[in-house]
Design goal:
Helix content is about 45%, strand content about 15%. By secondary structure, it is α/β, with parallel strands linked by helices. It has three domains: about 5-135, 3-Layer(aba) Sandwich (Rossmann fold), CATH 3.40.50.2300; about 150-320, P-loop containing nucleotide triphosphate hydrolases (Rossmann fold, 3-Layer(aba) Sandwich); about 325-380, Helicase, Ruva Protein, domain 3, CATH 1.10.8.
């Protein structure tokens, strides 16, 4: 007998708010359960009928610290470590919500919330959890094969959570925004999502969007019709068209000009574009993954990034921390790099003093800097 679809558990003590969320999700055919406090929520989670939790940060009248929400989040993770949790918060609990996202919550939403973004996030997380409940045979095959992690090396708990989330959302065909400083491996996470998605056998095309001036952006992303300008003697396929059916990874999205953002928003909204020099609309079917080292909310506040585009791209966010904040990863990555790039099969090992030096360094350039330092050391080593 097939199991019922997994539901979104709404944990909200204010009945009007809970009812508004129920109505919103019902309009989009998202099944829901409602709990008014932490005890009820944990009881529902234990039934196994929940695919994602959407929880408030405060339950008792007059509470604004977010302590209750934090306690519930950790209790849910102890019952089901893989349960995705979305937080809803007023301004007074924002700092606590952000700290919980760093601890493993998927995302947080302010009140009032953005309907489209909230529904898209809940749907994506439910879709990612749903296949696990469909058949024991499928689960067994998936467990035997294991996810394709594209050779990523890590030991830290925070990276384990991020990798698990990347694999989890890979099957949900929604945009993912990957954030973090330069050199942390944002493209590697894009590869993990692609490799574990339904589009794994289709094209994966990466573009450094920030390196494209406005004069080239349209031609590079959308293509050029023959005769569009002097020298355009044949039709040129753009990146959106080349990635049709697969995944398009746009790196450095935060440095796009406002004009470039407007052009990108159109194709994200409609799935259609026009080649340069053509008046005919073409349609594309791509999974869009974007990455940036820019704090986009700050850029929005400064008028440098479109808020509507941000909400379109940030259905799911993976925030990759700098290497200095996950020191458990430094030595495993270093050993892996030494083994991978040993010239002529010659192996080098890290001395105790070298390990101490690596652990004490600040790694402003993150994994990229670590790789460069090791390559230099290997070349000059006796």
């Amino acid at each position: 007998m097939p199991r019922s679809p997994l539901a979104c558990l709404i944990v909200e003590d204010q009945a009007p708010v809970a009812e508004a969320l129920e109505v919103l999700f019902s309009l989009h055919d998202v099944p829901t359960r409602v709990a008014g406090d932490a005890a009820q929520a944990l009881a529902v989670v234990r039934t196994g009928a929940v695919g994602v939790v959407l929880q408030d940060m405060n339950f008792a009248p007059g509470q604004t610290t977010g302590d209750e929400g934090a306690a519930l989040f950790h209790a849910i993770r102890s019952v089901d470590p893989g349960m995705p949790v979305l937080l809803m918060t007023a301004f007074t609990s924002l700092e606590r919500a952000v700290s919980l996202v760093k601890a493993g919550a998927v995302d947080y939403f302010g009140k009032p919330w953005d309907d489209a973004r909230l529904v898209a996030s809940v749907r994506a997380l439910l879709d990612a959890r749903q296949p696990r409940a469909q058949s024991h045979a499928t689960d067994a095959r998936a467990a035997a094969a294991g996810p394709d992690l594209r050779g990523i090396v890590f030991e830290s708990a925070v990276m384990r959570r991020l990798v698990d989330l990347a694999v989890q959302v890979a099957t949900a065909d929604v945009p993912v925004l990957i954030t973090g400083p330069n050199g942390v491996g944002k493209e590697k996470f894009a590869e993990i999502i692609q490799a574990n998605s339904r589009r794994a056998s289709r094209p994966f095309i990466a573009v450094n969007a920030g390196a494209l001036p406005d004069s080239l952006l349209e031609a590079e992303l959308f293509g050029v019709e023959a005769g569009a300008f002097t020298g355009a003697v044949r039709r040129r396929v753009g990146r959106f068209e080349a990635a049709n059916g697969g995944t398009l990874f746009l790196d450095e999205i935060g440095t796009l000009s406002m004009q470039g953002q407007a052009k990108l928003l159109r194709v994200v909204q409609t799935g259609t574009f026009e080649r340069l020099g053509s008046s005919t609309q073409a349609r594309t079917d791509v999974r869009l993954l974007c990455a940036t080292n820019v704090d986009l909310p700050d850029a929005i506040e400064a008028g440098q990034f479109r808020e509507d585009l941000y909400f379109r791209l940030n259905v799911i966010e993976l925030a990759i921390p700098p290497l200095r904040d996950r020191r458990d990863d430094i030595l495993p990555i270093a050993r892996s790099l030494l083994a991978r790039h040993a010239p002529g099969g010659r192996r080098h090992a890290l001395s105790a003093a070298a390990e101490e030096t690596l652990l004490a360094h600040g790694w402003a350039g993150n994994v990229r800097e670590l790789q460069n330092r090791l390559q230099r050391a290997r070349l000059v080593a006796p």
